[in-house]
UniProtKB/TrEMBL annotation:
Gene3D superfamilies for the chain: 3.30.450.40, Winged helix-like DNA-binding domain superfamily/Winged helix DNA-binding domain
High-level lineage: Bacteria, Pseudomonadati, Pseudomonadota, Alphaproteobacteria, Acetobacterales
PROSITE patterns in UniProt: HTH_ICLR, ICLR_ED
Designated name of the protein: IclR family transcriptional regulator
PANTHER family: DNA-BINDING TRANSCRIPTIONAL ACTIVATOR MHPR (PTHR30136:SF23), HELIX-TURN-HELIX TRANSCRIPTIONAL REGULATOR, ICLR FAMILY (PTHR30136)
GO molecular function terms listed in the Swiss-Prot or TrEMBL record: DNA binding; DNA-binding transcription factor activity
Stored Pfam families: HTH_IclR, IclR_C
Domain IclR-ED: 69-259
Matching SUPFAM superfamilies: GAF domain-like (SSF55781), Winged helix' DNA-binding domain (SSF46785)
Residue ranges of every copy of the HTH iclR-type domain listed in the record: 7-68
GO annotation terms (biological process): negative regulation of DNA-templated transcription
Keywords linked to the UniProt accession: DNA-binding, Transcription, Transcription regulation
Length: 264
């Protein structure tokens, strides 16, 4: 459940912005009909959106239209789509080469958003995930590999959000010394593993993963994992035989993704 009740004014503002964006050019009445909000509320929301730079009023008539600034709101989504497209050929080759599937994720607050997966390629994996799945930062190999190599700002944001969440793996966000030791170990080992409690909850303890960062200039811009079934191969063998291949794929992805423009 959310920690707080939704802010009604924000929800109304977003409804109005969505209507203006959809209609391209709209009167107060048209926005009222599209949203169901009363006209005085629509006017207040429009004035707020004009002040914020997301909506403009046509000078010759009382019609409202979206500004170019609304494009900023899709920047994160566009990045995710571009990362997924760029990663596809690398991950397809990786799946064919090692037989186990991978996910690539990008940072989004308290989670890594999966933007591409090879779980459906080369035979179905027992546990499916689709692009858009949010992998918890402190529970997954994707999240931990990213956290150990990301910028200070991304790490601060991730830990602040995770510290407010109740799941047992988020205890690390409230234990600075334990967290520092865990991240140092990940850097020394060259990979992160999935949290056992998370594996038990989401995979019945049957599956696990190792993850590595995708780096640009030594800083994580994404993370790549390798999923496996525990009854088929143990982690020691995965690390010994498959980690070098996963790391090479991550280096290739880093080179491919390094030129993509990130928001901010």
């Amino acid at each position: 459940m959310p920690s707080y009740e939704p802010v009604t004014a924000v929800l109304r503002g977003l409804e109005v912005l969505r209507a203006v964006n959809h209609l391209r050019s709209a009167t107060v009445r048209e926005i009222h009909e599209a949203t169901g909000l009363n006209q005085p509320t629509v006017v207040r929301m429009l004035e707020t959106l004009i002040h914020a730079g997301f909506v403009a009023r046509q000078p010759s008539q009382p019609r409202y239209m979206p500004t170019g600034r609304t494009l900023e709101l899709s920047a994160g989504y566009e990045l995710q789509r571009e990362v997924g497209l760029a990663a596809t050929p690398v991950m397809t080759r990786l799946r064919r080469g090692i037989g186990w599937p991978s996910d690539i994720g990008v940072f989004d607050g308290d989670a890594m958003v999966v933007v591409h997966t090879s779980r459906g390629e080369g035979g179905r994996f027992l546990f499916e995930r689709r692009p858009g799945f949010r992998a918890p930062i402190l529970a997954t190999s994707l999240g931990l590999a990213f956290l150990a190599h990301c910028s200070e700002e991304d790490r601060r944001q991730a830990l602040e959000r995770s510290a407010r969440l109740p799941e047992p793996w988020n205890d690390l966000a409230r234990q600075p010394e334990a967290l520092a030791a865990r991240l140092a170990r990940i850097r020394a080992d060259g990979y992160a593993g999935m949290d056992d409690a998370y594996s038990a909850r989401d995979y019945g303890g049957l599956a696990s993963a190792i993850g590595v960062p995708v780096l640009e200039g030594g800083v994580a811009i994404a993370a790549l994992n390798l999923m496996y079934l525990r009854d088929a191969i143990d982690q020691e063998k995965v690390v010994r035989k498959l980690l070098p291949v996963l790391q090479e794929a991550a280096r290739e992805l880093g080179a491919a993704l390094g030129g993509l423009k990130r928001p901010g």
